[in-house]
Every structure is written in structure tokens, then in C-alpha cells.
Write a structure and sequence with these properties.
By secondary structure, this protein is of the alpha/beta class. It folds into 2 domains: 3-161 and 277-366, Aminopeptidase; 163-274, 2-Layer Sandwich (Alpha-Beta Plaits). Helices cover 33% and strands 29% of the residues. The strands form 5 sheets. A 7-stranded mixed sheet has the order 1-2-6-3-7-17-8, sandwiched between helices. It has a 4-stranded antiparallel sheet with strand order 12-14-10-15, with helices on one face. Helix 1 (3-16) runs antiparallel to helix 3 (87-102), helix 5 (188-197) runs antiparallel to helix 6 (241-262) and helix 7 (281-295) packs across helix 9 (347-366). The chain is elongated and about 80 Å long.
Length: 368
């Protein structure tokens, strides 16, 4: 079977067997089975899912990361695990790159990090804590891109993700009868105030940022009860880690003021922070040269700037000396990432694998 056909078979398997963050047990087992069949040394972990594999020899280490988890979302009226972010494709492309490199000579060790829980925003940190990038000088990632960013056949040497963080909040007032609102504290009033407040936060128009409510829960089946409690969530993003930090501070301060104004308690919890990309010029150049050599100058695309986020960038936050870039693969992906019915041109998988293999090989020889 050709490498291209194996890539397709691997994708079919992982697409049909999605597992959510931290529960990628069968995914990890299948990866171990594939790597064993490929005669590749690999190491799972005792306490988390995911594993690390290596080929090549020497003291220098180049690495690539594939995220392996799926989302939990509603598909055709049923909540289930679903690979609508393309991590099944990422797995297949990285395994494909490994297979192509097995047929070639490489100039250093190449490490393959199959990372859990990217969707939770903390899988990268688990890998960092377990030494997955110890001794690594260059790190690459790969991800399919939405059709509005890259058409099929085009490949970008770097994705400049934004920073993101979520806020979960609970408003606690007091229930009241619909006829006697003065006897309670309506949780909906501060909730609507929060919705309006986040729209009043402004930074320089040269900075890309956003804050919006993504969850509201209040009230029950009895329509004559004014709800005293409500829950909400806010998604906050920026292309800059500094701006996101200030955005987070402003949101916190504003909600505290709303709490005092309405005489209610508002508990807040920030979670799932992912940093903005810190992209290496050297890693980008290596990827750029590899793209041109593999698919031609006409299929090279400039770096992608996106408001989406990825915990890949925790690797460079924790190890500033690490030279990293994530390669973007055009696949005519639509309607969009995280859409339950997301589809793409599967011919992009082999393109991504070949570009990634060329990038890793070039980096293995160029690192001094």
C-alpha cells in the first residue's frame, strides 16, 4: 500500500473513532499499534493519554506535534464526540510525514508528539511537564485551514493564532413572583448589563480583539417566577497576549461594578487560556523553502493570521528558545472549523504529509 493510501486509511479510522480531551484511550492505543507496525520506537505515558515517538539518530532533536482529541458537540440532534476541528487529519498527516521520512535519510533525531486535550487548552502543558520537548530546538505543527483562509492546494508556512480565554460566571440574586419584582433581585438585569458592557470595551483599531457572551442560562418552566440566579460565559480573544491580559482585566473590573450596582453576587472563573502565537522566523523560512520545493512557488501562500487559538503556542511560551511554526494546509474546508458537518478535500492530506516531511528533513540538516 502506498503512503498516500495509508494516510487515507489512518484518517478513516480516527475520523470514525473520535474521543474527547483526556479520554483518547483507544486513539492512543491505535497510534501505538501503527507505530509498532512501522517499527518506530514510541513511549506512552502512565497518567495521561498521548505518546511520543522518534526516528533518526544524533544529539539534535527536531519535533512535530499532532493533536489527537475530538470535540463534544451536537450532531444531527445527538451530542457526541466529533472530529470537526480536523485533528483526525492532523494525526494522519503527521503519521504520513513519518512514513515518508522512513524512506529517506535524516540529519538528526525527529520526535513525533501525539498530544491529547488541545481543545481543553492544556494538553500541551501536560506534554511539556512530561519532557516531550526536552532537547528540542525546532518544533513544527500542521493544521487544515478554512476555505476563507486558504483554498485547496495552497500551503502557508505559519499560522499566527490569537490568544483566547473563557470566563464562566454565576449571578446570585433572589427569586421573586412576577407580580412582585420588588421582593427579589432579578438576575437577568445584571446579565443584560454584562452583555451591553462587553460591547463598550475598546482598544486601538490596529489591535484585533473581541469579547462576546457565548452562554446564558436562567429561569425555568414557570414563567411567573423572576429568576434570582443566572449563569453565563464570555469568550475573549486578541492577536496580542498583552491586549488579552488588559481585556481580561477590564471585563473583571466591569462585572464587579455591575455586581455592586445591582446588589447581586457574581462569581467569576477564568479558564482555558491559550496564548497568541510566538512564531519563529527561522522555522517559518524552513517551512517556506520546503513548501516551494514540494508543491511549487505557485502554491505557496503567506502566513495566515487568524483569531482562532491553539495550545501549540504554550510550547514556545514555556521554552522561549524554541523555534516553532505551524504549517497551514489549504483544503477547501467548509463550512468552517468546529462546524458539526465540516468537510474538506481529502487530497490535502497527502500534500500536508509531504510538505511536513520535507520541512522536518530540511530542519534536521540545517540546525547547527
Amino acid at each position: 500500500m502506498t503512503v498516500e493510501k495509508r494516510i487515507g486509511a489512518w484518517f478513516d479510522h480516527f475520523h470514525a473513532n473520535p474521543e474527547v480531551s483526556w479520554k483518547e484511550v483507544e486513539t492512543t492505543a491505535k497510534l501505538a499499534e501503527i507505530l509498532t507496525d512501522l517499527n518506530v520506537t514510541h513511549q506512552p505515558f502512565d497518567d495521561v493519554t498521548g505518546l511520543v515517538a522518534e526516528i533518526g539518530e544524533g544529539d539534535r532533536i527536531i519535533a512535530v506535534r499532532a493533536d489527537i482529541d475530538a470535540l463534544w458537540q451536537e450532531v444531527d440532534g445527538e451530542y457526541k464526540a466529533n472530529h470537526s476541528c480536523g485533528h483526525d487529519a492532523n494525526i494522519a498527516m503527521v503519521l504520513g510525514a513519518l512514513s515518508y521520512l522512513q524512506e529517506q535519510q535524516v540529519g538528526s533525531r525527529i520526535r513525533f508528539i501525539f498530544q491529547p486535550a488541545e481543545e481543553k487548552g492544556n494538553g500541551a502543558n501536560a506534554m511539556i511537564e512530561r519532557g516531550a520537548i526536552d532537547g528540542v530546538s525546532h518544533l513544527f505543527g500542521v493544521h487544515l485551514r478554512p476555505q476563507e483562509e486558504l483554498p485547496f492546494g495552497k500551503v502557508s508556512p505559519a499560522i499566527h493564532h490569537g490568544a483566547a480565554v473563557f470566563l464562566e460566571g454565576k449571578i446570585t440574586g433572589a427569586d421573586a413572583h412576577g407580580a412582585r419584582p420588588h421582593q427579589g433581585k432579578n438576575a437577568l438585569d445584571p446579565l443584560f448589563a454584562i452583555a451591553q458592557f462587553v460591547k463598550t470595551i475598546h482598544f486601538s483599531p490596529y489591535d484585533a480583539y473581541s469579547a462576546k457572551l457565548t452562554k446564558i442560562q436562567a429561569g425555568g418552566d414557570s414563567l411567573n417566577i423572576i429568576p434570582g440566579t443566572a449563569e453565563f460565559a464570555i469568550d475573549a480573544r486578541s492577536q496580542s497576549n498583552t491586549v488579552l491580559s488588559e481585556l481580561k482585566e477590564r471585563i473583571t473590573t466591569g462585572i464587579e461594578a455591575i455586581s455592586e450596582l445591582h446588589g447581586v453576587s457574581i462569581a467569576m472563573k477564568w479558564s482555558d487560556y491559550t496564548p497568541a502565537a510566538e512564531v519563529s522566523e527561522e522555522a517559518t523560512r524552513i517551512a517556506q523553502e520546503s513548501i516551494v520545493e514540494t508543491v511549487g512557488e505557485e502554491n505557496y501562500a503567506p502566513a495566515v493570521i487568524t483569531s482562532g487559538s491553539d495550545d501549540f503556542h504554550f510550547y514556545t511560551i514555556s521554552h522561549p528558545e524554541l523555534k516553532a511554526a505551524m504549517i497551514g494546509i489549504g483544503a477547501d474546508l467548509g463550512p468552517g472549523l468546529h462546524h458539526p458537518m465540516m468537510t474538506f478535500n481529502r487530497d490535502a492530506l497527502d500534500i500536508g504529509a509531504r510538505v511536513l516531511a520535507a520541512t522536518l528533513k530540511k530542519a534536521s540538516y540545517l540546525v547547527s
